[in-house]
Structures are given as C-alpha cells and as structure tokens.
Amino acid sequence: MAASAIFSCDQIGLDLGGRSILRGISLDVKPGEVLGIIGPNGAGKTSLFEVLSGRISPKSGTVAYGGREITGLPLHRRARLGIGRTYQTPIVPEDMTVAQVLKAARQAYRPYLTPDDAEWGAGLVGFRIPGAMMADRLDTLNRRKLLIACLLMRRPSVLLMDEPAAGLINSEIDELDDIMRVLAKELNIAIVLIEHRMELLDTLADRVLVMDAGETIAEGSLAEILLNPRVKAAYFETDAGGGLH
Ligand SMILES: Nc1ncnc2c1ncn2[C@@H]1O[C@H](COP(=O)(O)OP(=O)(O)OP(=O)(O)O)[C@@H](O)[C@H]1O
C-alpha cells in the first residue's frame, strides 16, 4: 500500500459458486483521489466492491484502512470507520418520507447525529426536496442524492460508488460530476468509482484501473490505459456486447 493511501486492498482472491471470480486484485486510493474502475460485463467489479465494503470475505488477500487491516470486519463496522458504499440501483424505503429517511440515517448508530448534520449532508449534494415527500416518489437523481447525503452526514473518508451515473440523463450526470468533484477535492474524500462512461472518468478520475475476467489488466491515467493493447483488446472484443462497464 502506498504510504499516503487511506484505503487499499492487496492480492484479493474470491471464489463464488465454485468459480474463481477475482484473482490478485490490488488497489489503493489516497484522500482526495478518485480511482476509476472499468471493465467488461462480468469482469468482477461489483464482486470487488462486495469484498471492499465487507459484504463478502475474500478467499485470499487483505483490505486495509488507514494502515490497519480490516479484512475480517463486516460492512456495518466498516461504515463506522468511515467507509461508505453506494449501489448501482438507488433503493430507498417504500414507506418513509424524506425526513424520516434522513432521521433514520442520523440515528442508525451512535453517535446520533443532529438535524444540522443531515442538513449539511443534504446541502453538499444539493438535495432540496421537502421532508414530507415520500422517498419512493423521488426520481433517480434525487434518490441517489438522498442516499449519498445519508452517507455524507457521517463524514466518511472513503466512498465506494458503483455506477452512480446509471439511469441519469446528461445534465444530471454533469451535476453528479460536480458533486463528486467537491467531495474529493474539497472534502478530501477518497473515492473508488465503478463507471463505464469515459467522459465521467475523463473529468473525474485521477487514475483508472481496468479489470477483465477477474484480473487487473491495466492501471494508469485514462490516456495511458486507452493506449494499452490489453485494454484495447478487451474493449473492442466486448464492444458488441456493450463495451466497458
Ligand atoms: N453470488 C454469485 N455466485 C456465483 N457467481 C457470481 C455471484 N455473483 C457474481 N457472480 C459472477 O461473478 C462474475 C463477476 O460478476 P460481477 O457482477 O462482479 O461483474 P461486474 O464487472 O460488476 O459486471 P457488470 O458490469 O455486468 O455489473 C460474473 O461472472 C458473475 O456471474
């Protein structure tokens, strides 16, 4: 792990359903840095997030946060350390108002947070929906904003974001892009971002890691990885099937 990294994994191996899903995946991210992860469908990106967030234990390898090994720590304990995760589909509770969701997040665990904390989190993502609105009536962008606000009020130092732009139109993606830049560059949050939109990675990612079939095939700036022959092969060979994801 690089000396200044806040979060890292080393040589992660994972088997699921008797199949090898991840082999030898290592990465690290520094405060304020955005690390993009791309790769074709089935490359193992989401499985890697399962391991990084603590939902699944790897077969081999380690995960570390702030210089401390946390491989055996479950999801809720990692959240308390300051590692937040967002999912591809922004699922919000069906029977709660926006205010109730924010309150539940404030009181999910100690220390309980104040309404000011929640307001701060909501303000950072520009979430301006009245508290009385039912959360399941929100559009995709506002669902994402609400869920990110719930994480931000805890002042996380690492965010694992799985395709946060999925289901958004271009103007919304631009807004999200601005929000993420503020989180990384002004709040100094380390962000690991699964994203297949090159435009978003181009403006946001400091480095990009490319996965294919459970392995890392390239890592570097977006310009560098696009010139990499293995990346080109993975990109063009899978293009008919949807390209990089
Ligand atoms: N619970 C599971 N049991 C068995 N195999 C699984 C399980 N979860 C995922 N896989 C397999 O692991 C491989 C990696 O899947 P994963 O969803 O991590 O890839 P991905 O890169 O996120 O793909 P996508 O871009 O389509 O989301 C796939 O072949 C998938 O079928």
Describe the structure.
The chain has 245 residues and is α/β, with parallel strands linked by helices. It folds into two domains: 161 residues, P-loop containing nucleotide triphosphate hydrolases (Rossmann fold), CATH 3.40.50; 59 residues, no CATH class. 36% of the residues lie in helices and 24% in strands. It has nine helices and ten strands. The mean pLDDT is 93. The chain binds adenosine-5'-triphosphate. The site of adenosine-5'-triphosphate has 13 residues, from strand 2 and helix 1.
- Output the structural class: alpha/beta
Q: What do we call the CATH homologous superfamily of the largest domain? A: P-loop containing nucleotide triphosphate hydrolases
Report how far apart the termini are: 26 Å
Indicate the overall shape. globular
Number of domains: 2
Main attributes of the structure:
245 residues; alpha/beta; 6-stranded mixed beta sheet; 4-stranded antiparallel beta sheet; 9 helices; globular; binds adenosine-5'-triphosphate
Q: What would you say about this model in short?
A:
The chain is an alpha/beta fold.
Write the layout of secondary structure elements.
Elements lengths: L6 E10 L2 E11 L4 E5 L6 H9 L6 E6 L2 E2 L5 H7 L1 E4 L11 H9 L8 H10 L15 H13 L5 E5 L7 H17 L3 E5 L3 H7 L2 E6 L2 E6 L1 H6 L1 H10 L7
Helix pairs in contact: 3-5, 4-5
The site of adenosine-5'-triphosphate has 13 residues, from β2 and α1.
